[in-house]
Amino acid sequence: MSEQVATYIPDEEYEDWVEQAEEMGMSTSDWVKSMVRAGQKKFNRDVEPTESRDDLRRRRNDLRKELQRARDRIEELEGQVHRSEREAVIEYIDENPGAEYGQVVQHVANTANSRVTRILDDVEGNEIEIDEQGRMYTR
To answer: Is the Cβ–Cβ distance between 96 and 81 less than 8 Å?
Structure first.
């Protein structure tokens, strides 16, 4: 058997309740019941930390070092990309003296795939991940 309980709340609060219930995939009635139950539970205001401040500082410092290593690696890879493009241009001009701008641009465009493949091979697993569908994500 079920009983009905009625309450009067301001329109704004009701709209807020309805929105929160929808966000949780619940009816407003079920949401109100669950909130009342949650309010009845006894909570201890004393919270014991799971890690000491020293542990948190150590972890923070480790994360900072890891971030700096990642930034250094990214900078190194960006330098490699720049050098790779620069080398491709110089090598083409060396092999084709008197080449015109358009020819150099076309050569760089035509050979970009192999350079990009080489760069992706270098960074895969460290800086990027490639899923089963071939989509790439930074780590």
So the answer is: no
Per-residue model confidence as pLDDT tens digits over 49-77: 888 888 899 999 999 999 999 998 888 87
Please list, residue by residue across 6-42, b when 16 or more beta carbons sit within 10 angstroms of its beta carbon and e when fewer do.
Answer: eeeeeeeeeeeeeeebeeeeeeeeebbeeeeeeeeee
Assess whether pLDDT exceeds 90 at residue 116: no
Structure tokens at 39: 């309010």
Q: If you count them, how many residues does the chain have?
A: 139
The token pair at 27 is 């009816």
Q: Decide: pTM greater than 0.70.
A: no
Q: Look at residue 133 and give its three-state secondary structure.
A: coil
Q: For residues 133 and 68, give the distance between their C-alpha atoms in angstroms, rounded to a whole number.
A: 30
pLDDT score recorded for residue 37: 87
Domain-wise residue ranges, the chain: 11-39, 63-138
d(CA 100, CA 102): 6
